[in-house]
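Before a colleague's protein record goes any further, I have to sign it off. Thanks in advance; the entry in question is below:
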Amino acid sequence: MLNKAFFKRIVPFVLTFALGLLIASFFVNIAPSFKFKKKRPPCRGKEAQMLRFENERLRLENMRLQQRINESETIMLLEAPVPPPPIAPNVMEMPIDSVPSAPRTR
């Protein structure tokens, strides 16, 4: 009895798995590939030198930008704050509660 229930569960699984592999084999290669491909060739001397020069240039540019940020922060700290603009005396103020509303139309 136990064997019968076991086969009722295993046989559909194996058949479904085999059918899925058959369908997948039409779209992709499902065979394992044991060839190890290199992602990129090793850097040549000229490429490595160009990368070192670019890294050095970027490092110097980063330091220069950091100095500019620090200088602008110190300048901003030395400046006096700007006073708020004066309020015009002839402007009428209307309370928010008494704002007229538009009539509703249906």
Q: What stands out?
A: The chain is about 55% helix and 0% strand. Residues 43-79 form one domain.
